[in-house]
């Protein structure tokens, strides 16, 4: 669990709109959906993540007395509106794709149905939570596909864009297939396995490198990983051989050595040779240092004898694609489907469902995006997760979400698992009922414009 988020951590226009809604008595049911307009360049798919934190936020939604006092005193809002916020709670319902589900452009992964002020107020934080974890999980899934079955550990906390980003990226990467994290709080919060080695400073504060190795190994006798490239990587590996044998005689196990600079493939080959010739084939090699899916793919393709990787900055910040072109948009209000018509940002109106089909081999063959009152072939992906402001069931444990994500990657068509853009994008079909609804909304908007224009001319 993360700490409660203040409702003042939002965009000003959410609150100014709420006051305008209050003044006009606009509180009918609104429907908003979160979706990605287009896949980032170089991505063949995205992976949904962040739902658990969204539901936490919605269940805890409330203004504190201190926040209300600030709103009263800031000079932007009148007292009657601020007083109306004292008992504000989320009372709506949510449908969503389960975390770990693979999805594509224009497909909603979350729908909020609630009184307009509630559904509007939560927009900024929902986008903030879903966009970030989905972005990181999608990057981490690509790293997992590139690494095959090698050990993957999240190393990115120190260069994440803030504490919450570091913590949630540990969660998102584990969800997408990483084996663990170095972020200790993620271990306490979600039971994510923790991995860690040592810093170069530990070596440097000792007068001798071998002394540092021995001291650390004696503190962690069951299994430890030693950083061997503070000075001379191959020389350190040679000095480690007699020490490892000595310690083994005392029941102390050196599990792995870590490399984090230089030509990782070349160093790994030399270290592997030294360890094997020294009778230590059981010591693994772990590597880190500015890694991403492309660098891992190169190392794996080159046959570098590396057993595991620590991946940090480039994954935790999704360095090549650090944002998603995503939106949380109104789809229905007061029983009428609504549609944004802005150039380049038009939306498909109404409440929608995504149906996914599979081939005889179990791989995904295509999706259908349609209205919720239509039934298309395949598996519906959005499911109810909250009603009357409360979850319908406990969220699945993170390991179960991780298993779902693993199954989703296994069901991706092979071209979509590649790091390079697929020559043929995944097929998402817009069903006729959805197109028909869009046409109806367009006609209604046009008729309303004509009527308003006529009224203006009559009163001119």
UniProtKB/TrEMBL annotation:
One of its GO terms (biological process) is NAD+ biosynthetic process via the salvage pathway. One of its GO terms (cellular component) is cytosol. Residues 152-332 form the Nicotinate/nicotinamide phosphoribosyltransferase domain. This is Nicotinate phosphoribosyltransferase. Transiently phosphorylated on a His residue during the reaction cycle. Phosphorylation strongly increases the affinity for substrates and increases the rate of nicotinate D-ribonucleotide production. Dephosphorylation regenerates the low-affinity form of the enzyme, leading to product release. The lineage of its organism: Bacteria, Pseudomonadati, Pseudomonadota, Betaproteobacteria, Burkholderiales. GO terms for molecular function: glycosyltransferase activity; nicotinate phosphoribosyltransferase activity. Keywords: Glycosyltransferase, Ligase, Phosphoprotein, Pyridine nucleotide biosynthesis, Transferase. Pathway: Cofactor biosynthesis; NAD(+) biosynthesis; nicotinate D-ribonucleotide from nicotinate: step 1/1. It comes from Albidiferax ferrireducens (strain ATCC BAA-621 / DSM 15236 / T118). Its EC number is 6.3.4.21. CDD domains: NAPRTase_A. SUPFAM superfamilies: Nicotinate/Quinolinate PRTase C-terminal domain-like (SSF51690), Nicotinate/Quinolinate PRTase N-terminal domain-like (SSF54675). Belongs to the NAPRTase family. The keyword Repeat does not apply. Residues 8-130 form the Nicotinate phosphoribosyltransferase N-terminal domain. InterPro entries: Aldolase_TIM, N/Namide_PRibTrfase, NAPRTase_N, Nic_PRibTrfase-Fam, Nic_PRibTrfase_pncB, Nicotinate_pribotase-like_C. Catalyzes the first step in the biosynthesis of NAD from nicotinic acid, the ATP-dependent synthesis of beta-nicotinate D-ribonucleotide from nicotinate and 5-phospho-D-ribose 1-phosphate. It catalyses: 5-phospho-alpha-D-ribose 1-diphosphate + nicotinate + ATP + H2O = nicotinate beta-D-ribonucleotide + ADP + phosphate + diphosphate. It is an enzyme of class 6 (ligase).
């Amino acid at each position: 669990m993360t700490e409660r988020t203040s409702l003042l951590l939002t965009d000003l226009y959410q609150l100014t709109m709420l006051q305008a809604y209050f003044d006009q008595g606009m509180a009918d049911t609104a429907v908003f959906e979160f979706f990605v307009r287009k896949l980032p360049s170089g991505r063949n798919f995205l992976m949904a993540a962040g739902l658990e934190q969204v539901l936490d936020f919605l269940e805890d939604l409330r203004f504190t007395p201190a926040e209300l006092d600030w709103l009263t005193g800031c000079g932007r809002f009148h007292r009657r509106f601020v007083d109306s916020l004292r008992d504000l709670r989320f009372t709506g319902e949510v449908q969503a794709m389960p975390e770990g589900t693979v999805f594509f452009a224009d497909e909603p992964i979350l729908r909020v149905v609630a009184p307009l002020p509630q559904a509007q107020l939560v927009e900024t934080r929902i986008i903030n939570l879903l966009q970030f974890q989905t972005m990181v999980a999608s990057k981490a899934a690509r790293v997992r596909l590139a690494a095959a079955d090698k050990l993957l550990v999240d190393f990115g906390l120190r260069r994440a864009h803030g504490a919450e980003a570091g913590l949630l990226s540990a969660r998102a990467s584990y969800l997408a297939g990483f084996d663990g994290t170095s972020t200790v709080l993620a271990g306490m919060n979600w039971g994510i396995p923790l991995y860690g080695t040592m810093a170069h400073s530990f070596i440097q504060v000792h007068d001798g490198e071998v002394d540092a190795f021995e001291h650390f190994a004696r503190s962690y006798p069951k299994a430890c990983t030693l950083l061997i490239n503070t000075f001379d990587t191959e020389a350190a590996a040679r000095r480690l051989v007699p020490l490892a044998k000595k310690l083994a005689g005392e029941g102390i196990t050196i599990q792995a050595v870590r490399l984090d600079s230089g030509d990782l493939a070349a160093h790994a080959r030399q270290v592997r040779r030294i360890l094997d010739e020294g009778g230590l084939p059981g010591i693994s090699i772990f590597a880190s240092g500015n890694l991403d899916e492309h660098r891992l793919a190169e190392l794996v393709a080159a046959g570098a004898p590396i057993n595991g990787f620590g991946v940090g900055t480039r994954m935790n910040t999704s360095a090549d694609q650090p944002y998603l072109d995503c939106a949380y948009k109104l789809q229905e209000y007061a029983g009428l489907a609504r549609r944004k018509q802005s150039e380049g940002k038009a939306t498909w109106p109404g409440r929608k469902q995504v149906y996914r089909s599979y081939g005889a081999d179990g791989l995904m063959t295509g999706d259908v995006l349609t209205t919720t009152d239509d039934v298309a072939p395949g598996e519906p992906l959005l499911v109810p997760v909250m009603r009357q402001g409360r979850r319908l069931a406990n969220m699945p444990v993170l390991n179960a979400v991780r298993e779902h994500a693993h199954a989703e990657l296994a069901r991706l068509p092979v071209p979509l698992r590649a790091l390079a853009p697929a020559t043929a994008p995944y097929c998402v079909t817009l069903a006729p009922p959805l197109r028909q609804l869009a046409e109806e909304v367009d006609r209604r908007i046009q008729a309303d414009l004509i009527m308003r224009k006529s009224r203006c001319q009559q009163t001119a």
